[in-house]
Each structure stands twice: as structure tokens, then as C-alpha cells.
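P.,

For your records, the input lines for the assembly:
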Amino acid sequence: MKEELNERELLLLAYLEGDLTGAEKAKAEALLAEDAAMMGEYRQLKSTVLVPETATVYKNRAALKKPVPVAKKVTLRYILWPAAVAASIVLAIMLYVPQNTVTEGGVAVTDNKPATTATPITGDTKVNADVAEEKGQVENPIQIAVSQPKNDVPKDDKVVMPIEIAEVEAQQPVIKELIATTTLQSKGYEIGVSVAEPAEIKELQIPLSDMAFGTPEATDKKGWFAKVGDRIGSLVDYLQKPQVNIEKQEDNKGKDYWAITLETEKYEWEGRLFTRR
Amino acid sequence: MTEQQYNQSVDMYADGLYRFILKNMGDEFEADNIVQNTFEKLWVRRDEVLFEKVKPYLFKIAYNNMIDVIRQNKRWVQIEEGVHDSELPANEYSGLREALNKGLERLPEKQRTVVLLRDYEGYSYEEISEIAGLSIEQVKVYIYRARMALKEFIGKPEVLI
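C-alpha cells returned:
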């Protein structure tokens, strides 16, 4: 194809596209008035200008949007929160915990089957999966347990380590969406959140906002990793009755990690908690 | 770019981006995928993209994605010069707009892209050259050739009947 336009073609194009200055435009119009063939060609070219079909719209626009993080408000509940947790723990122990409670690694561990109800795992709580099932339906928001690093302890499954809670703030439902955000508060660990079905990402609108990107270490799933202390993003559109399951697993490199599964009626998220070494 | 500006970009440009890809590819499913991928990339790199520059950024990402998809699918029909008379079904197009659309489908990829960016989005030659990876002179040539091809196409008696 010829890579250059001649003078006549350039003039026609510029006039058609409205790229001429006042004087140039007047000159072009004079030329067109003198040259009937050129005027005919111009009119034909003008008829090829396309008009956007504004009736054609993108129907999934809402799915593209991301939740805007809401500034965290310091309220009384944050001050009272530790006390409330402590009270809950005491109450839970008094009411439900049998004497043969087992705790592994400071994190309540299930026996490879998901808990049937929402099971917030709290610091110093000593409950196992069976106890969690006995508790019945719990309406608390999702909470993710993150084990606290502790120096000078052997990296052993049986080592009991205190737990710190990464609280999930449930906000008011927006239409059909329930938005929740969480901030990891532990230090010295990385938590990876991956999606069981990457294809669901778009539908779920997991926005990954404020999430630090890193190498998806020790996982074969598409995921996003954030350092502890970072917000791990919002989990959008999770439904009621979330089930939380935490269990110790081993990756393909033989590295232990805590698998955190958040399961709802419709979706499932899987997170992995690795020890930074 | 903030999260709010990202969402604003969705409102402002999703429709135009979708129309641009749909017109180029003629495939709603592919157009939908490309739009989603494009905005996902914008979201990931939102910290690096200025809100003022987001439109050309989106169109460039979408255009490159579209080219990749086309190459992968290997279903692109290259018609380097003009249109083939043998492909013109007689008495098929009732209106100028429909005839233009059919003519547009028959344009080579580059010609179609530049003319759509120009007419649909009102981009300048400079912006089009940046999005499509062409020189400004090439953009002018492609636009002119595209218009000439469309003119020839819609001027055919069997098309205008």
C-alpha cells in the first residue's frame, strides 16, 4: 500500500476531518467549488463518516466497578472489642468446651471437613471442629485467624502460638452485595488469598483493593498475596451463613501452611497462611 | 488514579470501548471479555495511570488485547486493498448505515481500527498513532484508504438498492 498521500488527497482528508485553519479552509472550499469532480469525491467521502451507535452499551458495566474502601472509623466498639472477645471466650468455654479440647498451633483445627456454621476463631480460644459444630449457627461476621509469629520456638505443628484476629467489617448491603473488608494485623507472616475458581473473579468482583502484589509462592492457584499489615481486599457478594474452616496442610514443597477457607452458600474462598522464614 | 476515578472511568468509557471492540470484531462475547480484561488491567495498574490519560490507556490496552485474540483465533480475513467484488451479496443492504457497517467489516484491521477511533471516539491523529502503534502519516493514509474503500463499497449499485 502506498504510504503517503498526495497533495490533493491530503487536502480532501484535512477538509473532511476538519483539520484546516480558517484560511486553509477557505482555500480548500474555493478549490472544491472550481473542481466538480473533487467536490463529488468529497461528498462521497463525507458520507463514509461513521456515527457511533450509542444504543449499543456495555451491559456488564456494574460488574467492572470496584468497591471504594471506606475510611475506618475509630468507634467505641474498637475500644470495647478486646473485652467483648474475652467475654465471649469465657462464655464459650463455660458453655461448650468439653474437657478433652485439643488445640494445635494456637489455631483451632478442623478434621478436614468444613465447619457447618460460621466459626470465628479467636485468640486464646481453645475449640476444635466438633465444638464448633455443636455451637450451631453463629451470626458473627467472618473472622480470619492469623497466628502470631513467635521467636525462639521450633517450627513444630504442636507449638502453641497466640492468635491474632483479623477482623472483617461487615458493612451495610449495597443492593445485593455485602461488602466486607479486612486488615491483617499480625506481623511477620504473609497471608495469601487465592480464589478456588479464578473464573469467578469477575463475577465476584473481588477487587483486590489495597492489596500488595507479590509472587504467589507455594500455590498453584491464581492468587494475590499481601503482606501482613496490608488490607487483603474486600470480599464482595458473599452471602449469609459463611462457613470458616482452618486446617493445617502441606504444600508441594513440603512447607506447612494454614489453609483458610471461607465458604458461603454460593462461593468459596481459600486463603493460605505461610510462615515467613 | 483513585478507586473513585477508576469507577468513574468505567462509567465514562466502558460503552465506547465495548462499541469499538464489538465493531472491530463483530463478536459480543469476545468484546465483553476484552472490556473486562482491559478494566482489570487498569485496576491493577491504577496507581500508575493518570486519570487524565486513562482513555487512551484503555483503548491501547483493548486494542492490543484484541489483536492478540484475533491472532490466536486465526480468523481474521485480511483484505489489503479494497474489497472483493465476489464477496458482495447483491440487494442485501437497505440503508447507508447498514452498508457502511458491512463495508467496515470488510476493511483491513488497521484501516477499520483507525477509522473507528477517529469517528467513534474523536481521537486526533496523534492519539490514534499512539494507540495503534502507527506513525501519524500512516494514520492519515489508513484513514484515507478506509474512507475510499467505504466510498467504493457503498457506491456499488447492488449495495445501494
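Two observations worth noting. Residues 76-95 of chain A form the longest helix (20 residues). The mean pLDDT of chain A is 50.

Regards
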